Automatic annotation (TrEMBL):
<feature type="compositionally biased region" description="Basic residues">
    <location>
        <begin position="121"/>
        <end position="130"/>
    </location>
</feature>
<protein>
    <submittedName>
        <fullName>Uncharacterized protein</fullName>
    </submittedName>
</protein>
<feature type="region of interest" description="Disordered">
    <location>
        <begin position="74"/>
        <end position="218"/>
    </location>
</feature>
<feature type="compositionally biased region" description="Polar residues">
    <location>
        <begin position="79"/>
        <end position="94"/>
    </location>
</feature>
<feature type="compositionally biased region" description="Polar residues">
    <location>
        <begin position="157"/>
        <end position="179"/>
    </location>
</feature>
<feature type="compositionally biased region" description="Low complexity">
    <location>
        <begin position="131"/>
        <end position="140"/>
    </location>
</feature>
<feature type="region of interest" description="Disordered">
    <location>
        <begin position="1"/>
        <end position="23"/>
    </location>
</feature>
<feature type="compositionally biased region" description="Basic and acidic residues">
    <location>
        <begin position="183"/>
        <end position="196"/>
    </location>
</feature>
<feature type="compositionally biased region" description="Basic and acidic residues">
    <location>
        <begin position="141"/>
        <end position="155"/>
    </location>
</feature>
<feature type="compositionally biased region" description="Basic and acidic residues">
    <location>
        <begin position="95"/>
        <end position="120"/>
    </location>
</feature>
């Protein structure tokens, strides 16, 4: 895992434009290449696990062989043999036993070492799998955010286009002499009513003045 890939895992998603989103996705794709290499290493790890099982079988076989030697030694000692033959048999059994004990000890040490390597690799594989999951999650979030940004841009363009179209239609309505709106009609009715009231009040004042002049003449 490179520093660039770990940066994808540690830093929060920061996408201001589609170019940064594509860069983030490219980093995730490179990390996935490393994960493919990791899968190959997992296969090798499985082969090593099989080797551990074979070592255990070898250890079991060696223990069974020593058991058979002990049984053979007891049978031969029960027979009447010359001291030389008995000693030769004991020497052979002793050498065989030493050789097998050496094999067993080497197998135990190798088994211990393989188990330690197995634990180390298991921890590392678990960590890398978590990192792989984080990369996939980060990639998913980046794609969702990129889609959201593109959607917001499309909505902004659509809204600005509708405003400009409305602004173009307003002067056209004035030029073509379209009918006034309900609000305009309501305001117009109020103006007419107010003017009528003013005219009526003026007529009343004129009649009153005329009546006063007629009374003075009389």
């Amino acid at each position: 895992m490179t520093a660039k890939h770990s940066q994808v895992l540690c830093e929060p998603s920061r996408i201001d434009d589609p170019s940064e989103s594509r860069a983030s996705l490219k980093n995730a794709q490179e990390a996935l290449k490393d994960i493919n290499e990791l899968n190959k290493e997992h296969k090798n790890f499985d082969l090593e696990t099989k080797d551990i099982a074979q070592q255990r079988m070898s250890l079991k076989t060696a223990e069974e062989f020593i058991k058979k030697l002990d049984e053979r030694e007891g049978v031969r000692n029960s027979r009447i043999l010359s001291p030389t033959s008995t000693q030769n048999i004991k020497n052979q059994v002793s050498e065989s036993r030493k050789s097998e004990m050496k094999i067993i000890q080497e197998s135990k040490e190798q088994k211990k070492q393989l188990n330690q390597e197995h634990q180390i690799k298991s921890k590392r594989i678990s960590k890398q799998r978590r990192q792989m999951q984080n990369i996939k999650q980060q990639q998913y979030q980046d794609e969702r955010r990129h889609q959201k940004i593109e959607q917001e841009k499309r909505q902004a363009k659509s809204t600005s286009g509708s405003h400009s179209q409305t602004a173009q239609q307003e002067p056209n309505n004035k030029q073509t002499g379209n009918l006034p709106t309900a609000h305009d009609q309501k305001v117009h009715q109020k103006d007419i009513k107010f003017k009528a009231q003013m005219d009526n009040s003026g007529k009343y004042r004129a009649l009153n003045q005329l009546n006063k002049e007629n009374k003075w003449k009389m």
